[in-house]
Amino acid sequence: MFTGIVEEKGVLKAVHRGENWMVLTIEAATVLEDVGLGDSIAVNGVCLTVTSFTTTSFTVDVMPETFEKTNLSSISIGAPLNLERAMAADGRFGGHFVSGHVDGTGTVASIKPLGNAVVYEIKAEETLLYYMIPKGSITIDGISLTLLDVNNQSFTVSIIPHTLEQTTLQDRKVGDQVNLECDMIGKYIEKFIQHRKPTSNLTKDFLTEHGFI
Questions:
Q1: In terms of Cα–Cα distance, which of 70, 75, 88, 61 is closest to 3?
Q2: SS3 142
Q3: pLDDT in tens, 147-187
Q4: Residue 185 DSSP SS3
Q5: Does the global pTM surpass 0.85?
Q6: Which of 10, 14, 131, 196 is packed most tightly, with the most Cβ within 10 A?
Q7: 120 in Cβ contact with 108 (< 8 Å)
Q8: Could you report the per-residue pLDDT of 45-63, keeping only the tens digit for each?
Q9: Domain-by-domain residue ranges, the chain?
């Protein structure tokens, strides 16, 4: 479990590519302070498992499912990456519930300054936009953000200077692909409602028969 509060920007040091899988070696500092084999680290919002590490870097495997559904498949050596360790039980919850299981990708459609902030418009599939609401939560490349507006083709977020400086958003350009994870609470609620079994005999016919309708 993560919070979407990026701890540092790492750099892709090396990549070994297969047909639909990869092994990444990432330079980092903060996330290595207490790292152990098997630990989870979110890389651009993707929960990955540490398979080896040194004092300056760590290695993770990217399996076919992750390769196909995230932007990790297109990254190149030297690329900056948002990094976050799994949330500590006694840590502050500064963002929102983030699983690190990316739902899909979106495309940067526009980047516009607005006062002291920058508004990013992201185009996304309707199946992802369905779970988004204005002022709700969205994770973009592992960053917990508040949705500014949502329509049937895209959504917008407003980014403050601190977030731009501390994450890879400042490196994003129009046309770039970003990882998206929708708010898991909304997905759980929908699942429960869809599969809820009626537990009451109170029906519209009953209410009509007894004069309530």
A1: 88
A2: coil
A3: 999 999 999 999 999 999 999 999 999 999 999 999 988 88
A4: helix
A5: yes
A6: 10
A7: yes
A8: 999 999 999 999 999 999 9
A9: 8-85, 104-195
